[in-house]
Amino acid sequence: MTRLTRPALGLLLLAGLAAPARAAEVDPLLPADSEGVFLVNVRQILDSEFVKKFALGQIKQALKGQDAQKNLEKLGLDPLKDIDRVSGGFWGKTPDDMKSVFVARGRFDPEKLFSAATDEAKKTPDKLAIVSEGDVKLIKFVSDDKKPPMFATVANETTILAGNDPKLVADAFSAAKKGGKPALKKDLAALITAQDEKASMFVCGLTTGKADLPPGVDLSAFGVDAKTLAKQLEKMSSVAMTVRLTQDVSFDVSMGMKDKDSADEFASTVDQLLNTAKAFLPIIAGQQPQMKPVVGDVVKSLKSKVNGTDVSVTIKVTSDSIGQVAGDAADKEKDSK
User: 51 lies in which domain range?
Assistant: First the structure.
C-alpha cells in the first residue's frame, strides 16, 4: 500500500437492519503480494435507493445511445445486469511502481468478448492488441497518457481478470483454472474479513511503516503539530475506508493502531482535526450557499471514536440534502440557458 455500500415486509426489513454486518470474503484470485485490497459491490450500488433516485436514469440513458448499444451487444454484456462486483489487490513502494490485479465477477461471454477485442485490435492496433503470456491469451490496452498498458483476459463465464503486469494476470488466470484457497497475507485476510460484505465499496490495507505525511506539511491552522502526527502515524498498522449507499450516503474510516495507548493519542489528534474542520465548513458553506444542506449534514454527523486499538471517523449525508443541492444545480443550469 502506498504512503499516503407492508407489515411483513417491514418486519423483514427491520430484521435485516438489526442483523450484524456480514464478513467480507477474500477473493482467492488476489495475489499473495497484495498489501491493499478494494471491493466495489456493483450489484448493491445499482440496487440502492440512492442510485435509483439520483443516477440510474442517467446511466440507462447513456446506455441507450446507438454506439453504446451496438458495442455492448457485440460484447454480449449488459452492465446493469451482468456485473456483480469488482475487487482488486495492489502493492508497491511508490505510486510509480504499483502492481495491481483486478477481478470482476458476474456473467460474461468469453467468445464474444475476445471476438470484439480482436476486431477492435485490427481497427486501432496502436490502442489495443491481442498478446500472449505463456499459454494465456491477453487483451492489451494502451492509453493516450503514456501510462503503462493494462492487460485483461476472461478466465471463465463468471470471471474477468485485469492488471498492469501480464505475468500477474496470467498467474491469476492459472489460479482460476486450478481453484484453491486465498493466498493473501494473514493480517490482510483478517482485515478484509472484518469488512462488511454488504457495503457498497471498501478499500483496506496494511500500513505499518508506510503511513506518513508529505514533506513540509503544515497543520498549525488545525491546531495540530505535524511532527507529533507523523510519529503517531508510525504506529498505524492498518486503514480501512467503507462507503455505504442506501437511501443516504455514509463514509467510515477505521485506522488500526499498534496498541491502546497509541490509539488514544491518535484519537486526540483526530478529534482536534475534526473540530477545526467543523468550524471551517460553515464558512465554506457561506461562500457556496448551494452546498449548505450537505455541509450541514457533514458537520452534524462527523464523529470519531476509539474501539480498542481502532480509531474510526464517520460521516453521513442524507439523500434529502443531496436532492436539494442537485435541485439547485438543475435550476441554475436552466436559468443559464
Answer: 24-178
Q: What is the pTM of this model?
A: 0.86
What is d(CA 209, CA 207) in angstroms, rounded to the nearest whole number?
A: 6
Instruction: Tell me if 11 is assigned to some domain.
Output: no
Q: Which long-range contacts (CB under 8 A, 24 or more apart) does 219-222 make?
A: 219/273, 221/276, 222/272, 222/273, 222/276, 222/277
List the grid coordinates of 33: 503480494
Residues 137/111, Cβ–Cβ less than 8 Å: no
pLDDT digits (tens, 9 = 90+) for 78-103: 999 999 999 999 999 887 889 999 99
User: Is 64 among the domain residues?
Assistant: yes
Taken in order 194, 200, 206, 209, the sign of the CA dihedral is: negative
Which residue's C-alpha cell is 511532527?
227
Domain count for the chain, please give it.
2
Cell digits for 86?
A: 469488482
Q: Is residue 10 part of a domain?
A: no
